[in-house]
Amino acid sequence: MLDKDLARLQVLDEAHGMSGRLVTMVSHPFNLRKVVKFADVLVGAVLVPGTRAPIVVTRDMVRLMKPRSVILDISIDQGGCVETSRPTTHRDPTYVEEGMIPLLCP
């Protein structure tokens, strides 16, 4: 779990970190670049009320991911936080971009 809110990360770490099922890190490009290399599923959920979601996962970061990894960009209604994201429909919910499979139904 990556987040910019250190207090939130501490609460999550205290609740789940001891089990070894959750690893917390401060969200910044260095850590993102590190974790996308081994992620099977990347969930982007960035919200800045009243404006477009910032791009936090670049195309270069997506290229570092394992082939056939899955990207869920929950921020797609606000433009998406993954550079390669684009809106989809329930009828046609996926596409392959840079070898990854984004799932982006609004």
Give a structural overview.
The structure is a single chain. The protein is an alpha/beta fold and 106 residues long. It contains three helices and five strands. It has helices spanning 6-16, 29-36, 59-64, and strands spanning 2-3, 25-26, 41-44, 70-73, 101-103. Strands 3-4-5 form a three-stranded parallel β-sheet, with no helix packed on it. Strands 1-2 form a two-stranded parallel sheet. The protein is globular, with a radius of gyration of 14 Å. It starts with a strand and ends with a strand. The mean pLDDT is 87.
Question: What order do the helices and strands come in, and which of them pair?
Answer:
Elements: E1 2-3, H1 6-16, E2 25-26, H2 29-36, E3 41-44, H3 59-64, E4 70-73, E5 101-103
Shape: globular
User: What count of helical segments does DSSP give?
Assistant: 3
| SSE run | EHEHEHEE
Distance between the termini: 23 Å
How many strand elements?
A: 5
**Chain oligomer state:** single chain
The assigned structural class equals alpha/beta
Largest sheet: 3 strands, parallel
Q: Report the radius of gyration as a whole number of Å.
A: 14 Å
Strand order of the largest sheet: 3-4-5
Mean pLDDT: 87
Overall helicity: 10-25%
Strand content range = 5-15%
Low-confidence stretches: none
